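<instruction>
Derive structure tokens from the sequence
<data>
Labelled lines for chain and fold
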Amino acid sequence: MTDYFSRPVHELIQGLQSGSWTSRKLAEHSLTQIEQQNDALNLFVSVDADGALQQADQIDARRAKGESVGLLEGLPLGIKDNMCQQGIATTCGSQMLLNYLPPYDAHVVERIRTQDGVIIGKLNLDEFAMGSSTETSVQGPARNPWNTDHSTGGSSGGSAAAVAAGMVPLSLGSDTGGSIRQPASFCGVTGLKPTYGRVSRYGLVAFASSLDQIGPFARDVQGAALLLQAIAGHDRRDSTSVEEPVPDYSADLKSSIEGLRVGIVDAHYAEGLDSEVGSQVKEAIAKLEAAGAEVIPVELPHAKYSVATYYLIAPSEASSNLARYDGIHYGHRSEEFDPANDSLIDLYCQSRSEGFGAEVKRRIMLGTYALSAGYRDAYYLRALKVRRRIREDYDRAFEKVDVIAGPVCPTTAFRLGEHADDPLAMYLSDLYTISANLAGIPGISVPCGNSSSGLPVGLQLQGPAFAESRLLQAAHLLQTVTDWHAQVPA
């Protein structure tokens, strides 16, 4: 059987345009791969086979008549299960929303349909996107196709692993503190977190509203650029969506990047970074330098406070956002509630206790404490001030360089359950990614090697706000001189 999805996206599109294969053929291949692999990997939590095939047939019919077809040309893709799709269960990996059927589409779902992408189904995630391993999902843990004993990363683990496993050529995830880049690194694919405000959050179930951002996964930079092009742009329904012109990201990849200035931060290589990860990242930066980039040391002095800052701001916003799940308006309602003997407070407590998992409860409690009377100024407001300092550090650094290169994660994919009883160790896996969310800037993870145990290593590139084109160009440069992105799990 032809392995379509080991090919890069631009080759799949060429085949669609030439008639070598059809959108239906690619959708059927995706459904076959899901059927064959999903029991072992647990990446797709729902599949809309009939809807996908019907949409693929419609696109093929239009193409056969010579009518125009959208940017995505009938390619199949999956979306993280925290993005609303009308009439399709959107669970956020939680008992709280296990039976929730949204009455509307998220902005990105609308854009995908407008651009003729074929949505195959919804992908596994950490509960309410709170996690770094995709183990906290009520649907069960996702497994890494490179080694099924290991984590996919999180919270967009299902989205990254589905591309790595060849179930779909493209997928969407969301990134609040590294939830696109970390699983992209663990699974050996390309994952981009756009600038905050570049992609509308309308229809994305909120975790931390000032940090959340939707972005693409693909096997290579060209695929990520194409999907970003399809979903980016202003949306009046999201007050944080920015009216900034959307470049032609795919065309910009062909632009010259002569004189590219790549910043490196010595603090990225301090104690805690796995030696193999560090050496692979340094080798990738050396390849960029050999290809013509200039490597310049820069400093991010407040980055060391990023984890502490993030774990005050994000839980505080989560505490506020998740207060709406009360067992009355929608979401899980406890069957243990007895109206004759129990109060309204009992209903809230029982429903939320049953509906939320341990990690979500932990973050709600952290956030509620940080916002409580007598502590808000000491914790939350101080964290906002440090957040501003982190952004100012990046502003100064980007006066000297075009992008900053470094590790995505301190380690390769850890074993499932390895950090289950150590939340701090889990939080530290986002050490290098969190600061980009706090600053609102874009970041990308691209494969740059494998460890001695065969697990992928990612290189992170970060750029100034709304400089996705430059970021993609730099990442594409690396992929023109290496082939790590072309490797697939056995």
Q: What stands out?
A: The first strand starts at residue 44 and ends at 47. The chain has a mean pLDDT of 96. The CA atoms of residues 107 and 202 lie 6 Å apart. The chain is about 40% helix and 10% strand.
